[in-house]
Specification:
Strands 1-2 form a two-stranded antiparallel sheet. Strands 3-4 form a two-stranded antiparallel sheet. It is α+β, with helices and mostly antiparallel strands and about 80 residues long. The protein has helices at about 30-40, 40-55, 70-75; strands at about 1-5, 10, 20, 25-30. The protein has three helices and four strands, in the order E-E-E-E-H-H-H.
Length: about 80
């Protein structure tokens, strides 16, 4: 089973009403509307997926070492004014 990246519903890959490939990764959707939403801004959903992975794997006392050019680092850094 796959997870629809837009609505987070479980989707059977064999019966998915819609699917698309993005950056060599196949995404499955519960409905064509979720595919349309994803295709409007796939980078957003890719980034959300990354944040969800961090949330599941990092504890409050975890130390993370990452390059300063990573997308996650840019998200955490305050913007210069």
């Amino acid at each position: 089973m796959a997870i629809d990246p837009v609505c987070h519903m479980e989707v059977d890959e064999e019966k998915a009403p819609a699917k698309t490939e993005y950056k060599s990764q196949m995404y499955y959707f519960c409905a064509p509307g979720c595919k349309v939403a994803f295709e409007k801004d796939p980078e957003f959903y890719s980034f959300i997926r990354t944040l969800e992975a961090y949330e599941k794997s990092l504890r409050r006392d975890t130390t993370v070492v990452m390059p300063s050019d990573s997308e996650f680092f840019r998200y955490l850094s305050p913007t210069a004014k």
